[in-house]
Amino acid sequence: MAADLGELLVPYMPTIRVPRTGDRVFKSECAFSFDSPESEGGLYVCMNTFLGFGREHVERHYRKTGQSVYMHLKRHVKEKATGAAGGAIPRRRNGKVFLDLELNRDFNGEDYEYEDEAKLVIFPDHFEIPLPNIEELPALVTIACDAVLNAPSAYKKQELESWEEEIQVSRHARSLRQLDNGVRIPPSGWKCQKCELRENLWLNLTDGAVLCGKWFFDGSGGNGHALEHYRETNHPLTVKLDTITPDGADVYSFEEEEAVLDPHISEHLSHFGIDMLQMQKRTENGHHTDNNSRPRVSEWEVIQESGMKLKAVFGSGYTGIKNLGNSCYLGTVLQVLFSIPDFQRMYVGNLQRIYDYSPLDPTQDFATQISGSKRQQKGVSPRMLKSLVSRGHPEFSSNRQQDAHEFLLHIINLVERNSAGSENPSDVFRFLVEERVQCCQTRRVRYTQRVDYCIQLPAPIEAATNREELLAYEAKRKEAEENMRAPPEPVRARIPFTACLQAFTEPENVPDFWSSALQAKSAGVKTSRFASFPEYLIVQVKKFTFGVDWVPKKLDLAIEVPDFLDLNRLRATGLQAGEEELPDLMPPIVLPEDTRGTTSPEIDEAAVMQLAEMGFPLEACRKAVYYTGNMGPEMAFNWIIAHMEEPDFAEPLLLPSMMDPGPSTSDSPVGAAPLGTSPPEESIAILTSMGFPRNHSIQALKATNNNLERALDWIFTHPEEEESDAVSDMANTEPNDNAFYNANSHSDSTLSPDRDTTGPRVKDGPGRYELFAFISHMGASTMSGHYVCHIKKEGRWVVYNDHKVCLSERPPKDLGYVYFYHRLSSS
User: Which one of the listed residues 328, 439, 454, 500 is annotated catalytic?
Assistant: First the structure.
């Protein structure tokens, strides 16, 4: 039998590989669907590419590649049998097969047992060889099978428990010397002794100093005074104040530079008057819980409709998306997008074509991953999709919670990028905004247009209908804070939607406005109107802001959002009779004489290093500090956030005086980019994906030194017939499919009102809309909390809460964060 198997495998031996370091083994999810080893047909892993395929897709891979040998993995899940004493059968009877295969279920794994099965399958005859079969298989095949079985799954995430197991007892815990300085820490009302910050506070266990923690790039943390104190005193151990409970506390050792355990923490805290048994865990808003109080119904309960017997629904359009660990922002966005017919038609209606034309590695193909075919009652786990769409992004590639609105724009970017030359479903969101800027001194005006994908509505607290109640609460809160008492029950601001819309349309001051009529800086105001209305309107309520300590905070407010919306009165009108336009002149570029010939501009290196410690590229930090005039790390951080999607974000700082030749401010391409040099293909692809001709895009980039925003401005101020022959000759070069498109990268661009030939594609129509979906956020910040979405389907509101999909009894429309409207027909 051994000889027979060896002879059988001889023709396939050249195609069987042993996974090397760096090879990813996809043994938990199909590359085309959401099939897994727990699916009815199991999962087939190619022994050459290590890609996984469900039973419906493995034949396609065999026909396309000719790879014949696959490992079939099947996990059988059974409910545990319990004895009279309640004892259960061990959790896993065959632990060697899927050693590193993550549990892919949404119920309690301790209540189930798993029997894992593996075998080699040879196509096209489906000849099966059970595993393990060490004695009968050739050595190479045995080694390859063992390596695949024991390789970690490609998207296996680290469990939190593994981090907890690594925490060690501090070497300072036993011999910590505490100063007898009479310091006593109150049970509440803490603030940093140096900056009066009231969040992220750490107590030094040697001298009782209460100081703030380190400032992080996401805006959280503090000003680093606890670390400064350690450098001054060498007192090593600190404890985070809002983590102290009867069960323990979070302790950090500055000297050991890691989180540590302190077995004597109760004794060390009692030195400063803190009784751990009396301490209570803080709630998410930083306030202590009080078991005797009856708090208001929380935002979490209202949005998730807790306490109601919601009816679960299943079937097409009602598939949940499992939370992969702080990935609810991704799930809610995908649920809403795939409720739109244009996305369904592009990625579901073309499913067979997408699969047939997918590359050899479908895990790297956007269309394949976003169109995952399998619909499961227990929900799907989009690990491959998350890995693909977040690749290279500093935030979405992490396991931290993210802003659903930012992720929505990121997905639109990817859809734009991957729809060049084909139907683009994100066209339904694109619209034009007309901006009217007026010089307050000369009263002259300038009208420009820009592309946008959503409107951001301010939330004017001063317009709240319960303003008196809010003022009374604020007075009580300050009084409680001064007297170190528990804060009063929070009051939620109730703001009319009309007030938000009014705030959106009001004129706003233009900072550093340069009047071309005066040839000098002047006061200017700007108003915005719709130059076109999209087919689907995205409305984001600006619920998040930064506090004085630069910590992102969420405004506690409710807005009565209407089901029907008429925005026709906000239609742009263009230049009116009697209005005089500002001259079409550009402000002069002023360069200090002493910078010419300088190779190293004056930059605050301390600020650069502070930003670099947050993980940003060094050159990007240098540019951020330079372009914000050395005004500190906070201003530079804002610059980084605003420019991190740009292609040259991490490239070295080049000043105009250092370039040869420098960027020209004239309309001629002469002196901008050398005519013999082609602009970057990714920049060309971005412009062509917006509908502009390739040769026109090339000329615009060359005329503006490859600056995308200036190139867009150039395109809309220069008709296509003015293109030079030198640029037109380059139109036959092939575009690069790897270009990346940013939905907001052109938001300040000037667009021509004539959109028939060169303008971006928009689906204009009447401005009457009906609400069909909204995404809600629970928590105090976009960096934490949870997202759910409600979608109106077949006349019923449905709530999507990760893998749970139920009919909604009371959709909380007033607590939404991002709202989605579809256009009503004109009839």
Answer: 328
